[in-house]
Amino acid sequence: MPSDILIIDDEADIRGLVAGILEDEGHGTRTAGDTDTALAEIEKRRPTLIFLDIWLTGSRIDGLTLLDIIKGQHPDLPVVMISGHGNIETAVSAIRRGAYDYIEKPFKADRLLMIAERALEASKLRREVRDLRERAGDTGRLVGSSIAMSHLKQTIERVAPTNSRIMISGPSGSGKELVARAIHESSLRMDGPFVVLNAAAITPDRMEHELFGTENGTGSARNVGALEEAHGGTLYLDEIADMPRETQGKILRVLIDQSFQRVNGTTKVNVDVRIISSTARDLEHEIAEGSFREDLFHRLSVVPLRVPALAERRDDVPELVNHFIDQISRSTGLPVRTVGSDALAVLQAHDWPGNIRQLRNNVERLLILARGDESQAISADMLPPEIGEMLPTTPNRGGEHLMSLPLRDAREIFEREYLTAQVNRFGGNISRTAEFVGMERSALHRKLKSLGVG
Ligand SMILES: Nc1ncnc2c1ncn2[C@@H]1O[C@H](COP(=O)(O)OP(=O)(O)OP(=O)(O)O)[C@@H](O)[C@H]1O
């Protein structure tokens, strides 16, 4: 993105000089000779960097007051003060008030460019860190207050500080990795690394390289493996059932010895790592089949923890939907939409075989594809067909969904639609209709009257 630098100085030749130097290096510039023009320029579009003269003769307010206003409105916008020889102290106090740096007149072109580039880089990094923090903090939060979820959160709090090995089981996409992260975040190792090794995504011949690292024969690591990287923290072994049997034996040795050797290595590497494993498969079955070592299972599964499928905690669906809408719109810039109660009812009734991951993907798709006015709630008829079609709908009611109505109202709508269609089908002949639908003629008459049909 091109930079857009605003230069605020009461002296036209200084403004011209600074703008010239910056433009020669490809920066975009704007200038302002007084504080009101400056505020108007900032209002027009937020610049990426500001050079601000401390002494502004002929302006309504002085440079420092303008700095306070800018920092109040745009705390992340870097401001570099331009100071004369006599007011270095003021420049220093400006830094205390939030300025990024100051440059003293007369200045060399190199120094001006260096300060500008450093300020732009620092502000870019700050923005990136904030985005990452926001995203990390957000994805790390376990959303849901259903009984099943509250239970899970309580268990996490209890087991997190204990350091014991945990085996998390649960269907794919149910949140096992998020649970492992939550355990790490509330453990005494929270300042250490959280390393993920997904056994399902690594070919058996690469597994030991990834887990133990490699050595070049001289005793030092060529590649550091996941175990070594996780020293002082937590190693999350995702889909542990996919570990080759031979590697299982080696992991068992690590658990017993608290040390291992790198591939092609001679040195003994000592590590202090807490292992959390996960499985979407039934490990007892894998053990019976002979594909998973029972002794390793018992070592890894000191505390077994089960993450329920989304279908077992449908109460969480509305909260999750709103959480994902916020999260997705923040990271993609898509507008935040509300979801109507009819659509929520359908989402809640769906079985979600792909669990929370599938729900999240559908929310994302909804936000991208949702038609209509942004301020209008997303209704049931906007849902992807495979979600909505599994449930009864009322085709002639403009998208209103039966699932959003109490039984009495839903039944009335259904009866009206059904009987109207049957009466039409028999050309208005009530006797034939009554015979087909299995009612007495007189009872059908009364029914049609009460429903306002005919
Ligand atoms: N309780 C929750 N609150 C908020 N987001 C959640 C929750 N559970 C899961 N998610 C989100 O759902 C997605 C899938 O979760 P995760 O990767 O933890 O599932 P998993 O069970 O480890 O999946 P897999 O079995 O495929 O490895 C992620 O985007 C995660 O952030």
Automatic annotation (TrEMBL):
Gene3D superfamilies: 1.10.8.60, 3.40.50.2300, Homeodomain-like (1.10.10.60), P-loop containing nucleotide triphosphate hydrolases (3.40.50.300). Residues 142-368 form the Sigma-54 factor interaction domain. It comes from the Bacteria. The modification 4-aspartylphosphate is found at residue 53. Keywords: Activator, ATP-binding, DNA-binding, Nucleotide-binding, Phosphoprotein, Transcription, Transcription regulation, Two-component regulatory system. InterPro entries: AAA+_ATPase, AAA_lid_NorR, CheY-like_superfamily, Homeodomain-like_sf, HTH_Fis, P-loop_NTPase, Sig_transdc_resp-reg_receiver, Sigma_54_int. Pfam families: AAA_lid_14, HTH_8, Response_reg, Sigma54_activat. Residues 4-120 form the Response regulatory domain. This is Two-component system nitrogen regulation response regulator NtrX. It comes from Kaistia defluvii.
